[in-house]
Amino acid sequence: MAKRTNKATAGRAKKSGERVRILISRGRLQKRITEMAGQIRKDFPDEPLHLVGVLKGAVFFLTDLGKQITGDVSFDFIAVSSYGAGTHTSGQVRLTRDLDSSIEGKTVIVVEDILDTGMTLQYLLRVFEQRKPKRLRVAVLLDKPERRLAPVQADYVGFTIPNEFVVGYGLDYAERYRNMPDVGVLSLAE
Ligand code: IMP
Ligand code: MG
Question: Which of 11, 30, 72, 86 is most exposed, with minimal Cβ within 10 Å?
Answer without folding.
Answer: 11
